[in-house]
Specification:
It contains 10 helices and 5 strands; from the N terminus they run H-H-E-E-H-H-E-H-E-E-H-H-H-H-H. The protein is of the alpha+beta class. It folds into 2 domains: 167 residues, 2-Layer Sandwich (Beta-Lactamase); 59 residues, Winged helix-like DNA-binding domain superfamily/Winged helix DNA-binding domain (Arc Repressor Mutant, subunit A, Orthogonal Bundle). The protein has a 5-stranded antiparallel β-sheet, with helices on both faces. The protein is elongated.
């Protein structure tokens, strides 16, 4: 089983097209008994309006409806995925806060589903959703398929991020020097350039030099934005 998983992972990581990769993920979902598959990847930047990519084979009319009604803003499964990495099974209770979304989804044949989010150290998060129109998900089925669904969630994240992140999050390739990291760490703590000068035993001019370099590398408009971006991307560890 492990060898099969490793072989499949390597094969997926060799795919360089989002569409081809998603078609493969959809086939895996069908093999597990689900008619529909959706995958979304969310970048940590910009903080106010993160870049995202979304793929699904849901009915086209439902995709348009979902967009037109801005259901993404109230979708309970997405809100759960932001807070938790545990899987969530669709139910009346889950969708109680967004009843119209739930009613319309079922009208389009999306009645039973499972979703799980994933997240990596760079702050990139993703969510895999599988769904179908008939046969509710039983506890027995979930127990039987949970390992494969968990594996598919992680593989989908790694493979899709491998393709998408270099394009949507070029800041992740930023290299900061040890001194730039140290200066940004203290900046993130609210220290002034004068404070950092005393802490690191370097001139204030040198502190500002490193701050300006960091701002340019991170495409930040000021030192606060540079510190936040570096922290969000996991560059200050």
């Amino acid at each position: 089983m492990r060898n099969w998983q490793e072989t499949q992972l390597q094969a997926l990581l060799c795919i360089d097209s989002e569409q081809t990769l998603f078609a493969k993920l959809t086939q895996y979902a069908r093999d597990l008994g689900f008619d529909y598959c959706g995958y979304g990847l969310r970048m940590p930047l910009p903080i106010a309006n993160p870049r995202m990519v979304m793929h699904s084979n849901y009915p086209a009319a439902w995709q348009r409806r979902y967009t037109d009604r801005n259901y993404i803003a109230v979708d309970p499964t997405l809100q759960h995925g932001i807070r938790s990495l545990l899987p969530i099974v669709w139910s009346d209770d889950v969708f109680r806060p967004a009843r119209s979304l739930w009613d319309e989804a079922r009208a389009f044949g999306l009645r039973h589903g499972w979703a799980r989010s994933s997240r990596d150290p760079s702050g990139v998060s993703g969510m895999l959703t599988v769904a179908r129109g008939s046969e509710p998900l039983s506890e027995v089925e979930l127990q039987h398929k949970s390992m494969m669904l968990d594996w598919l969630t992680q593989v989908a994240h790694m493979a899709m991020a491998h393709i998408v992140v270099p394009r949507l999050l070029p800041e992740l390739a930023t290299h900061l020097s040890n001194r730039e990291i140290a200066v940004l760490r203290w900046t993130a703590e609210g220290k002034t350039s004068a404070d950092i000068s005393d802490i690191l035993h370097i001139s204030e001019r040198t502190v500002n030099f490193h701050i300006n370099n960091s701002m340019q590398k991170l495409h930040a408009s000021n030192k606060t934005a540079a510190a936040i971006r570096a922290a969000v991307l996991g560059l200050l560890h």
